[in-house]
Amino acid sequence: MQTISNERTTGFSLFDSVPRDYFHFGEGPAFQPKIVSDVLGLKKEDVSKLASVSQRSVRYDEAIPEQVKERLQEIAMTANMVAKFFDGDTDKTVLWFKARNPLLGDISPKEMIRLGRYERLRKFIVHAVLKQDRPQEQQPLSA
Prior knowledge:
This protein is an all-alpha fold. Helices cover 50% and strands 0% of the residues.
């Protein structure tokens, strides 16, 4: 039984082609988690739920809890992946996150994040990117 994921067999890795920072979230020490929260309209209670920390500990300065920073970095990368799909149009990207999506159970991607279903959303986006980036496979020749 083969257990290699589709991502490996296609040679695709999320980090092979990290998208540009269309939203200017910053990277590494320049990362600005508050911008991620603001762009998607996430409240402190949303951030606390998605990072599994108390609402009182959610902050965006140098004392940001590591779980909050990591989760917002993941969301930032995901938002930039979607922005790349829309040729860098951040307005369309924000609208996509806020609009109901029938492929996601008729809820918005933002709601999925708020409800703690970020991982399912991330997989949906990665699958869509794979589908877009994968070259058409050639049909075998007929005998």
